[in-house]
Design goal:
seven-stranded mixed sheet, Rossmann fold, alpha/beta, single chain, about 30% helix
Length: about 240
C-alpha cells in the first residue's frame, strides 16, 4: 500500500493572496532542513538530466523554460526560466532539488552513475521522468540499477500530486494519443517519500513546448501546464 502525507492536499484551496507566506516557509524549510543532508540547493532551478545510451535527453528544449514561466506567472514560487543541464558523472546534480528527464529511446547508467542517482534521491532529491514514447523499457531497466530493492507503484487518483494546486480527480491528463492507452503515473518511494515520479502514456512535457512544435490545442497545453505546476508545488511541499 502506498502511504503519503495527505495534508498537502489543502494547497489546492489557496490562491495567490494566501500562498506567499506559506510557500516562503516551505522553501526555507527545504533549504535549511537537516533532511537535506549536505545537498546545497541553489536558486530553484529545474535541471535536465543528460544520460548516456543514445537517447534524445535534449528533446523539446523549450519545455522547461515555458513551464517555469507559467509557474512564475501563476504562483508565488520563483523558478529560473533557464534550465540547467546535469549528468551523473560528477556531484553537480546535488545542487538541484528537482531533476527532469525525457526522451524517446535508450538510456544507460553506469554502475557509478546509478549509485550517484540513488544517493541524490535518498538525500532529498527528486526525479521527474516523462516518457516521450519509447523510453519505457530502458528507463525501467536502468532504475532497477538505482533501486534494485524497489518497484514502481501506480499512484492512486487521490494522491496529493494530482491535487496540490490544481485538481485532477481522474489522475494524469492525456496530452498525446500515440498508442491510445490510458495515462499512468508511477512512483518510487524511499522511507515514505516519493523520490521518483514517472508519467507514462501521457507525455506531459510535450504540452509545455512552444505551440507550433506539436500543434497541441490550447486546452491540452493548459492541462499540461497545470499538471506541471502540481508537480513543482508537490516537490516544494514534500
Amino acid at each position: 500500500m502506498v502511504t503519503y502525507r495527505s495534508g498537502s492536499q489543502n494547497l489546492k484551496h489557496f490562491d495567490k493572496k494566501v500562498v506567499p507566506g506559506i510557500i516562503l516557509l516551505l522553501i526555507l524549510f527545504v533549504l535549511l532542513s537537516p533532511a537535506s543532508q549536505g545537498i546545497a540547493w541553489a536558486q530553484f532551478t529545474i535541471a535536465r538530466l543528460k544520460y548516456g545510451g543514445g537517447g534524445d535527453w535534449y528533446n523539446d528544449p523549450t519545455a522547461i523554460p515555458n513551464l517555469a514561466r507559467e509557474v512564475n506567472r501563476r504562483t508565488t514560487v520563483e523558478v529560473s526560466e533557464e534550465e540547467a543541464v546535469v549528468d551523473l558523472k560528477g556531484p553537480e546534480i546535488f545542487r538541484y532539488p528537482f531533476v527532469f528527464m525525457t526522451g524517446h529511446g535508450n538510456i544507460k547508467f553506469t554502475e557509478e552513475e546509478a549509485k550517484r542517482l540513488r544517493s541524490y534521491l535518498i538525500h532529498g532529491g527528486f526525479l521527474y521522468a516523462d516518457d516521450d514514447y519509447g523510453m519505457d523499457t530502458a528507463f525501467r531497466r536502468e532504475m532497477k540499477k538505482v533501486f534494485p530493492d524497489k518497484e514502481f507503484v501506480e499512484l492512486p487518483f487521490n494522491f496529493p500530486i494530482y491535487h496540490t494546486f490544481y485538481d485532477f480527480p481522474d489522475g494524469l491528463p492525456k496530452i498525446h494519443k500515440h498508442s491510445g492507452k490510458p495515462p499512468q503515473g508511477f512512483g518510487i518511494f524511499h522511507e515514505g517519500r516519493l523520490v521518483v515520479f514517472y508519467t507514462y502514456e501521457s507525455n506531459i512535457s510535450d504540452g509545455w513546448v512552444d505551440p507550433q512544435v506539436h500543434g497541441d490545442p490550447p486546452e491540452k497545453r493548459e492541462e499540461a501546464f497545470r499538471m506541471g505546476i502540481n508537480i513543482i508545488t508537490y516537490v516544494l511541499m514534500n
